[in-house]
Amino acid sequence: MSNTIAPLNQSMRHGNKFHIFAAIFFYISFFLLSVPANSAEAAPLVKIIEIKGNRKISSSTISSKMKSRAGLPFSKKSVQDDIKSLYSIGYFDDIRVEIEPFEGGVKLIYVFTEKPTIVSLDFQGNKEFETKDLKEKITITSGAIANLSLITDNVQRIISFYQSEGYWLVRVVPIIREISEDAAALTFQVEEGPKVTIKRITIEGNKALSVKEIKKVMKTKERWLFSFLTGSGIYKKEQIRQDVARIKELYQSKGYIYVAVSEPKIRLSPDKKKIFLTISISEGDQYKIGEVRIKGNKVFSDSELYDQIEIASGRIFNRSTLRKDIDKIIDMYMDRGYARADVNPLIDVNTKAKIANITLSITEGGIYKIGRIDITGNIKTRDKVIRREMRLDEGDIFSKKLIKRSYQRINNLNYFESVDVNPTPRVEEQLMDIDIKVKEKLTGMLSIGGGYSSVDKVMVMGEITQTNLFGKGLYLKLKADFSSRRTNYNISLRDPWFMNKPISASIGIYKEKFDYTDYDKEAMGGNIGFGKELSEYVGGNIMYRLEEVKITDVSENASSLIREQEGSKLTSSISPSVWRDTRDNYLDTATGSRNALYTTLAGLGGDNYFVKGVVDSRWYFPVIWETTFSLRGRYGYAAGYNGKELPLYERFYVGGINTIRGLNFGEGGPINEEGEKTGGTEELIFNIEYIFPIVDDIKLKGVLFFDYGGAFDKDHHLSFDNMRETAGAGLRWLSPFGPIRLEWGFNIDPKEGESGDKFEFSLGGLF
Q: Looking at residue 603, what is its pLDDT?
């Protein structure tokens, strides 16, 4: 079924093109009756060319499109070519050519009637979508010329948008109403029709592969219960074309080289609200790989290249694997600077033996160096902030691996909505220019909110964050939390390139007050730190912290551990740390890992003496269908020295969204006879997650998790018996306000006084 675009309003001036060309032919024929056409010498000279009727388009622009020139012999063909060329601009309704005798030659007079300007643009009949939303989908605006091809193109854009939302029967009619001689109003008349969903997809002709296997590779899905979340069940023409290609690729990855997949047959239900799709497949025969040869290689030996490829004689022919092998070989060359290297697979098919012989023909080309590095789109962010993340500089040998790494680093700044790093070759000079296009996003955030928890009761929170202060990449954070039991103020500033050197510097001050059940804690302190990248993926940091903590209002029923902490104590500590981070994206990771060691040594003056260390390792593994498996493990140890006990507020408290989900704060560790959660001197935590996409367009994902671990001390030993287990599910959303986590954890083996489940949320970084 097709959508019919009605003819434009008949009020468009000067009728159809037949009359226009008839008039042109009449004028030219009339004045050419006496002009000999035998030879160029006999034709009169064009003495002057006059242009009339043009108001919007300049005479110089018109002249640049014409072949006819003053001083040249008159040519009927040149005039005809001029008319065609000028009509193609799309600005004219009518072009008339007049010829007059002039000073022994002729004068050419081009008379133009311009198309009207669109001074008003509107939609009628649209009910499901607002006019302002539809205007965002089109390229034509008020002030544009009423060009038929431009209007037709925008009609198709509107239709495509409606069809992508399920309105498959939509009709759009453009209507042009003349307001004055050179002005017109354009109205898109929309007939939306009912929303059409896919009821059933039928696969026919498949024998080697199951229907389930085929439907798995298709993006087009049948309507189901949660389609309102996933957006599935809608027929999209472009998507179904891609699905046909995906089915072909699936078969060709199983050896069916000559598979044929039909365009889907479409049947509408009687009420025109449901679609039934039928896809027919002709599988053909299955082929195996015969000989595999490589030719044209000089930079790498045959054995080096064979080590990179998976295709081999005797295996089932797999076009996907062949494509990956070609990409591997090209990447090898591109990492050596051969930016224009190419691999052409020559496939010789023996239909009788059902064998495909493959020859990988390599064109190496020459070594390219980096030419210009151009950055566009950054209005606020300074060039140097982007340029310092580049792993290549002008004059360096081209490397695809370093281009990819540069993209990752710029993207991980989290200053940009989109980042494109495009190499553009200058073949004659064997240079590769790098064009970096960025689209900035808001990096400042003001959030004011509130909430309720069983610990803090009613909470009010306020935070101002600017991650790209002054466009220099400075990170500033001002935060305040208030509740019936807690008050917290925090201000911090970090410069990732202190004094324009590859060294980070940070400073922060804070004040916190918390009313626990058996005591009150008040802390005030500050810190200063410096960090440096030790290699591409490895970095280190060292921080000095000075903090004064007061423990007051200790309950008479409190344990001796708490009573011993009463009073004011000063902590002077230094915290070195080192990490290795290979994640592809810090906020939405699909592959890579982060491994870190954090240590603290307190006792450089002050009252507290303790050591503390945490080893933290998290790995991400891409699975099928853009899903990710994540495994995290943490071990921490802390102890006092020099005759001092480990402070209560430096112990490990396990339970909550960042440790063991499904448990309350401290429930995963030691609890004394008085029922106080005293924290541990050790912690061991494992988090296993399976992350899957729900709505790609808004970066909404789901997660299934299993947590295992706890906190331990001398009376609550690290053992399997004392480890806690929880499981659950949640949502992750990279929202415009920052990453949001909503997670529901279930306590698999609740102890006395514990709840069986716990719902938690956080707004901030993913842990």
A: 92
| Total Cβ atoms within 10 A of residue 170 | 24
Q: Specify the fold of 197-282.
A: Ubiquitin-like (UB roll) (3.10.20)
pLDDT digits (tens, 9 = 90+) for 550-573: 988 888 777 777 788 888 999 999
Residue 752, token pair as written in the block: 């006395």
Range with lowest mean pLDDT among 48-57, 136-145, 218-227, 565-574: 218-227
Helix H or strand E encompassing 734 = strand 724-735
What residue spans of 487-644 are helical by DSSP H?
560-563
Q: Which CATH class is domain 117-191?
A: alpha beta
What ranges do the domains of the chain cover? 17-114, 117-191, 197-282, 288-363, 373-440, 442-495, 496-726
Token pair, residue 602, equals 């307190």
CA–CA dist 48, 71 (Å, integer): 8
Give dist(CA 255, CA 584) in Å, integer.
33
Average pLDDT over the chain reads 86
Task: Using the predicted structure, report yes or no on whether residue 21 has a pLDDT greater than 50.
Answer: no
Encode pLDDT of 111-131 as tens digits. Answer: 988 888 888 899 999 998 999
- Contact between 290 and 213 under an 8 Å Cβ cutoff? The reply is no
Question: For residue 434, is pLDDT > 70?
Answer: yes
Q: Which CATH architecture has domain 17-114?
A: Roll (3.10)
pLDDT at 561: 75
* Tally of CB atoms within 10 A around 604: 12
pLDDT (tens digit, 9 = 90+) per residue, 479-535? Answer: 887 766 778 889 999 999 998 899 999 999 999 988 877 788 899 999 999 999 999
For the sheet with 342-350, list strands across it. 288-295, 355-363, 342-350
Domain 373-440 belongs in CATH node 3.30.70.360: no
Gyration radius from the chain CA atoms: 36
Angle at 626 between CA 166 and CA 260, to 5 degrees: 65
What value does the mean pLDDT take over residues 255-282?
A: 90
Contact 459, 472 (CB under 8 A): no
Give the residue ranges of DSSP H helices in 136-210: 148-164
Position 168 confidence tier, pLDDT thresholds 50, 70, 90 = confident
CA dist list (Å): 455 to 172, 458, 515, 516, 664: 58, 9, 10, 9, 9
Domains 373-440 and 496-726 belong to one CATH topology: no
Give whole-number Cα distances, 419 to 331, 407, 412, 415, 466, in Å: 21, 7, 10, 10, 20
Please give the structure tokens belonging to residue 114.
């311009």
CATH of 496-726, one of 2.40.160.50, 2.40.37.10, 3.20.20.70, 3.90.1640.10: 2.40.160.50
Does residue 616 surpass a pLDDT of 90?
yes
CA distance 214 to 58: 58
- As its CATH architecture, domain 288-363 has Roll (3.10)
Contact yes or no for 671/678 (Cβ under 8 A): yes
The Cα–Cα gap between 620 and 628 comes to: 7
Cβ–Cβ under 8 Å, residues 758 and 661:
yes
Q: Supply the pLDDT for residue 29.
A: 46
- Evaluated on CA atoms 271, 272, 273, 275, the torsion sign reads positive
Query: Pick from 297, 327, 314: which is nearest to 358 by CA?
Result: 314
Q: In this model, does residue 468 exceed pLDDT 50? A: yes
Return the sign of the alpha-carbon dihedral for residues 13, 15, 18, 21: negative
Please say if the pLDDT value at position 241 is more than 60.
Answer: yes
